[in-house]
Specification:
Length: 200
């Protein structure tokens, strides 16, 4: 549900943030993922270090997003598993330290959501992906900064990015699922014309 504040505008019947350059605030954002384990349960994790810029256009469909994630910042709550995920069998962070996303198109979807399509690069492999974006509203913080929130979700096949390590289970199936669900909570701050913002 969007917040009904003055900075939200309506374009073609949809609530959208005001135009401008928005910088993702990592202190109030989360980049999470979920992967099936042994076919019966789930492993949840997140990336601790990331940055990005959202450029909102007067015409929402002309907006764009660029984001970078530090691959080595992966955190699943188990250090031994995280070391394995950083290794050459998975993310190979020594040779591919960054995961990047660059948008190509954005278009309206159902229920006030948007379909964001772009190029995702993991482990040096670039593939097109489509993510579902929900705009959650804008608000002004105590320091006068205008903030916008978004929910982003989607699913990728890790094997599309040359991450193919696995182990077969005696009962059938594999230890690690191929599908990776992505769940991102984004809070971004509108920049001043000079690119700055007040401290918060």
């Amino acid at each position: 549900m969007t917040m009904n504040v003055a900075t939200t505008r309506t374009v073609a019947g949809r609530e959208v943030p005001p135009p401008g350059r928005w910088v993702i605030d990592p202190a109030h954002s989360h980049v999470d993922f979920v992967v099936r384990h042994m076919m019966i349960s789930k492993v949840r994790g997140r990336f601790r270090e990331f940055a990005g810029v959202i450029s909102i256009d007067e015409i929402p469909e002309k907006s764009s997003v660029e984001a970078t994630i530090a691959a080595a910042s992966i955190d699943t709550g188990d250090e031994e598993r995280d070391r394995h995920l950083r290794s050459a069998e998975f993310l190979d962070v020594e040779h591919h330290p960054e995961i990047t996303f660059r948008s190509a198109t954005i278009r309206a979807a159902d229920e006030d959501k948007w379909k964001l399509t772009g190029e995702l690069t993991i482990r040096g492999v670039t593939r097109p992906v489509t993510l579902l974006v929900e705009y959650c509203g804008t608000a002004v913080d105590p320091w006068g900064n205008t903030r916008a929130a978004f929910l982003v979700s989607g699913e990728i096949n890790r094997e599309d990015f040359a991450i193919t390590w696995n182990q077969a289970l005696e009962a059938g199936g594999f230890l690690v699922g191929k599908g990776v669900k992505v769940e991102v909570d984004v809070e971004a701050v509108l920049q001043n014309e000079d690119g700055g913002r007040e401290a918060s």
